[in-house]
Every structure is written in C-alpha cells, then in structure tokens.
Amino acid sequence: MCGIVGYTGPRESLDILIGGLERLEYRGYDSAGVAIVGEDGRLRVRKDQGKLQALKDLVAKDPVNGNFGIAHTRWATHGAPNQVNAHPHTDQTEHIAIVHNGIIENCDALREALRAKGHTFDTETDTEVLSHLIGEYWDGTLEKAVAAALRLVEGAFGVAVISDLDPGKIVGARKGSPLVVGVGDGEYFVASDVAAILQHTNQVIYLADDEMVVITRRGFRTQTIHEIPVSKEIEEITWELSQVEKGGYDHFMLKEIFEQPRCIQNAIRGRLDDDGWKAHIGGLNLTDEELLRHERVVFLACGTSWHAAMIGEYMIEEYCRIPVEVEYASEFRYRNPVIDSKTLVIVISQSGETADTLAAMREAQRRGATALGICNVVGSTIAREADGGMYIHAGPEIGVASTKAFTSQVATLAVFTLHLARLHGLSDEPARSLIHGLRRIPEQMEKILASEPKVADIARHYYHHDNCLYLGRGYNFPVALEGALKLKEISYVHAEGYPAAEMKHGPIALIDENMPVVFICTKDSAYDKIKSNMQEVRARQGRIIAVATEGDTQIQSLADEVLYVPPTVDALVPLLSVLPLQMLSYHVAVLRGCNVDQPRNLAKSVTVE
Ligand code: F6R
Predict the structure, then answer these.
(1) Is any atom of ligand 1 closer than 6 Å to the C-beta of 490?
(2) In this structure, what DSSP letter does residue 155 have?
(3) Rounded Cα–Cα distance for residues 101 and 607 (Å)
(4) 351 CB under 6 A from ligand 1?
(5) Is 357 touching ligand 1 by the criterion CB < 6 Å?
(6) Class of residue 270 by CB neighbours under 10 A (exposed 0-12, middle 13-18, buried 19+)
(7) Which NCBIfam families does UniProt cross-reference here (predicted)?
(8) For site-directed labelling of 71, which of 33, 282, 401, 506 has its Cα 20 to 30 A away?
(9) What are the tens digits of pLDDT across the range 15-51?
C-alpha cells in the first residue's frame, strides 16, 4: 500500500526521502512524489507515475533542494494511477503539501462543501480534498489547520503535511493507517513503516489513532487531533538494517524463504519447556484459569494468515479438543457473528495493520470477546489493541508474498496449542513429541532448502502452464491453499487449492495433460486416501508433482516429479511441506519474467477495506 516518509533536520532531504521510498517499494505502488521547501523558502512538488526511477529522473532534470520535506509512494484507490493523482497534493494556495495513506470516506461531501466556497479541484483524489480543507483552516499555524481539518474527516488516514509558510515543520497524524516518528540526533522523521527510516535511527514513537505529531529539527510534540497534549514513550526498534536488505539474494522473497530455519528458532526460543513438556508464553495477559474459561476459539485473519489460522484450527481441535472456527476477517465484520465472553478470538496478521482484520478484532472485542493477536510487526495497531498475544519474531518481511511469516505463524500457533492443550489435560507423550518435533524443524528446513536446484529444475519443466491445481488433505489442505496462493500472486498463473477428495466433486473436469497437479501427500493419517486421488489424476493424463515424505518410494510410480520433506508429527508437517511450494512459485515467477518482490496490483499491508 502507499508509503510515507518525511524528514526535517540539517541534512539535504531529497536523498533521505528517496532512500526512504526505496525501502518502502516492497509495499506496492504505482506512482511516487516529493514535496520539499527549498532554501529560497518556496514549496516545490515533483511527482510522476510509475516506478521510483521516473521520480529520480524527474528530480535529476528539475532538482529540488532543501532540508525539510515529505515523500510518498501511492497505490491508487481514488482515481487512476497517473501523474496528476500522485501525491503530494497541495491546497488551493499551493503553500501546503500533504501525503496521505488511507481513504477519506466522506470526501464527496467535503469536496462539495469546499466547491461551494469556491475551491476547484485538479484531481479525483480524496487527498486533494484534504489538502484544500487544511488550506481552508489555515491561520498561520500548520498543526492547528491540520487538526481542524482532520476533525471533519471520516475514514482512515496516515498523513504528513508541510508548508512553506510554517518552515522547518512537519505535521504527522494517523487514524487506522500507521505512522511512526523517528527520533534522530538533531533530526526527525515520520514514516508509515520503520523500514523507511531504520538506516537513520532505531528510536521511534508510535502514534495511536487520532494522534498527531509536530516535528522540527529542534524536537517533537504530540497531541490529539482535538489538540489535547499526549506524552509518548520513545521505543527502540530491534530490527537491523541488514534485515531490510537483500543480502546477496536476487529477491527478498528468496532471502526470506532461506531465513525460515532461523525464524522458527526465533519463534520457539524460550517458549518450550523440556522438563514439564509445556510452553511458556509471556504476553497473553490471561491466567491459566481465564484461558480455560473460554469454550471455543475463533480465528480472524486474511490471506496467508488465514491459511495459518486453518492450521491453528486443526491443531487446537486435535490437541485441546475444543471447537474452533476460522473466519475471513472481511466477512466476519459484516455478519452477525456469535461471539461472547467465552469465545477466545485469535487474530493473525503479519503486518498488524490489515484494515479488515483490525476492524474484525474491534468488532469481536465490542461483543465481549477477549482477542489475542499473533503479529510480526512490533508496535503495530493489532498488536497494541489486542488484549494480549504473541509476536512471531520473523523480522521484517519485505517480499509481498508472505513466506517466513507463514511458517513463523504456524510455529507460534503450535506453541500456543501446546500451552492450551496442557491446560486441557493433554498427556506427556504427545506434548513431548510436539516439542521434539518443533526443535527439529529448523534443521529439517535446511535440508529441504538444499533441494532448491531440483525445485528450479521442475519449475523449468512446468513454468509455461497457465493453470495448476494444488491438492492436500488434513494439515496439508491449508498448505495446498497456500501453495496455490503463492503461485497465483507472484507468477499470475491461475492456481486453485482444494482438499484432495473434493477434486471428484468438480475440479476433476479440468484434468488433462495440460493441467499440472501438485499433491502434498506426506505420510500421515490421510496418506492412503490421497494415493487414490493421485490415481484418479493419473488416469486422466494429469501431470503430478508430489511433495512426499523422505523414504516414500511408492509415490514415485504415481508422480512425474517428487520433492521430499523429512518426517515429523502431523501437526508440524505444514512447516516443511510448504517450503518446496514456496520455492516452486518463486522459480516459476522468475522464469515467467515476473517482478517477484512487487507483484502487480498487490500491496504488502492492505490498510484499506
Ligand atoms: C499473501 C499475502 C497476503 C497477506 C494478507 C494478510 O502472500 O501476503 O495474503 O497474508 O494480506 O496480511 P497480514 O498478515 O499482514 O494481515
């Protein structure tokens, strides 16, 4: 989604702003721009559609210099992704410039009210309306005008605003769209994502909804949009710069696939107890008695996180024997869900900012449920607003296609399941094998990752196909969904995931020699059944790629290609069986010439409904 960076300090701002935008490229965008107040005291805006290079070419031809400014990468919502609609937008006097993430829901009404006062608009964007509204309230102090305008806004915003009439100052504000303030040495930043400023500082302040910050090179001040002062803690980011760099890999996605063994170590570190075969989790904010009082679990998530939630459902039902439901966050919030104080809601979100997931969590809390968050981004809105939860500790995930966050979510869910299951009376033996299984996952993942050349070879045989079916049963059904999602989002190949036995209820009609079918058929309780599904595909000349358990020689006679994963307990199989599928999607996408890290139309964190 859109990205924001702002800088004020003694240095030349252009390179800092463009550098920050580069770090935000991964979030997905279709145009970019900067607004800088030059040494002559004049506000200048440069913006263009397309990739950042277009903006860099523009500022090379028509430079802008000055030591305070704001910048933006836009992912179009209101109006086409063209130069005119790109941010920053200015007010009617062209003295105020704004960059904005989010959607202003009452922008039509505001536009009409401003038109009645004589304003004319050049763009179709909601952001231009906001810039004019700020201009309308201008009385010499930028934060006053911004606060007055934002009080009239319905919807979501993360904004950064500057004016050449109030020099050296940046006003930032947020509601439903993230904004952090970077505190440097005699210089200050605002950004929608810490990745944009990590190179300069690891000291940050997270704004809450309806809060604003006013920064100058001399310091910062925080208040609400109702102009009530608030004091904020400065927090330290533990992510390192190397984590937001490619580190020798061709793409972030590949780097993140290979980081997974370390991520799993981080997700389970300090959380497993070999003495009592149980888990220790800080941060749930629920006593054992309170946890046990919950009679059912509802997971809320979107996309890949929803797939992880499905695995969580299977785990909790198997080990804790309590009912679990998995809901698409977007559906949940507009139904009339049955939720009460005995429902434990678990919200899964890598970014912690997904608009649908956040809204669904708030709705569940409003109905009396306790909500736990399983997030990656520390300090994200879901992490802060949840009643408790667990971080997955995957480190920054830059590739738009989620890989390491998925496996870290699954590992974290396994830890949580163990904790809850022991409270529900799970015996020592299954608890012990879960712990042993989890501890072995990193080394087993390394082994699978070593088969990357073989996966790349298989990709070369299949990359020209435009369709693909993914089939799995039990714990491997969500893996089939995840494998299909990975392929379609980065290589634009149409892919579907199905429970293998469902194939004969419809998708079997698609099977012929042009339909590769990926079977995730590791040796588990559904193994014999899935072999018959493979026979059914074979009988119709379908081409089969199998993900099977090491040592399974029977599978070779059923499949055209076999990728092996080491054996583990059923509940942990997804942690291994998804790896070959991630690598396969990656190589297919590369062979098809796709932009792996920034697939078309997609955004890393979906902060609009
Ligand atoms: C797929 C992907 C998306 C996200 C989804 C939820 O690779 O990345 O499907 O999983 O947008 O995002 P979070 O987990 O940030 O809430």
Answers:
(1) no
(2) B
(3) 8
(4) yes
(5) yes
(6) exposed
(7) glmS, PRK00331.1
(8) 401
(9) 999 999 998 887 778 899 999 999 899 999 999 998 8
Q: What are phi and psi of 161, to 5 degrees?
A: -135, 140
d(CA 76, CA 414): 38
The answer to whether domain 451-595 has CATH 3.40.50.10490 is yes
Would you say the CB of residue 349 lies under 6 angstroms from ligand 1?
Answer: yes
Name the token pair of 413: 């869910």
Q: Smallest Cα–Cα separation from 274: which of 439, 86, 62?
A: 439
Atom from ligand 1 closest to the CA of residue 302: 6
Closest listed residue to residue 459, CA positions, set 607, 345, 596 = 596
**HSE toward the beta carbon, residue 89, CA cutoff 13 A:** 25
E strand or H helix at 298, and its extent?
strand 296-301
Atom number of ligand 1 nearest to Cα 400: 8
Residues near 123 by beta carbon (within 8 Å), at least 6 away in sequence: 79, 84, 85, 89
Q: Which CATH architecture has domain 241-447?
A: 3-Layer(aba) Sandwich (3.40)
DSSP states along 188-220: EEEESSGGGTTTT-SEEEEPPTTEEEEEETTEE
The answer to whether 320 is a known catalytic residue is: no
- Helix 428-449 / helix 404-423 crossing angle, nearest 10 deg: 170
Whether residue 150 has its Cβ less than 6 Å from ligand 1: no
Alpha-helical regions (H) of 285-354: 288-292, 303-320, 329-332
2 classed as catalytic:
yes
Q: Which residue's entry shows tokens 């806004």?
A: 153
Q: Which two tokens stand for residue 132?
A: 């004019």
Which DSSP letter does residue 524 get?
S
375 CA distance to ligand 1 centroid (A)?
A: 11
Q: Which atom of ligand 1 is nearest to the CA of 303?
A: 9
Which secondary-structure segment (H or E) carries 170? strand 170-175
The residue type at 63: P
**Residue whose CA is at the smallest distance from ligand 1 atom 8:** 402
Contact 8, 166 (CB under 8 A): no
Residue 604 banded pLDDT, cuts 50, 70, 90 = low
Q: Which CATH number fits domain 3-237: 3.60.20.10, 1.10.10.10, 3.30.980.40, 3.20.20.105?
A: 3.60.20.10
Per-residue pLDDT of 527-574, as tens digits, reads 888 998 999 999 888 999 999 999 999 999 999 999 999 999 999 999
Of 328, 336, 340, the closest CA to residue 299 belongs to 328
Tokens of 302: 């979107």
Cis ω on the peptide bond leading into residue 574 (within 30° of 0)? no
Two tokens, residue 234 = 């400065």
Q: Rounded distance, CA 85 to CA 82, Å? A: 6
Say yes or no: do domains 241-447 and 451-595 share a fold: yes
pTM of the model as a whole: 0.83
3-state secondary structure of 70: strand
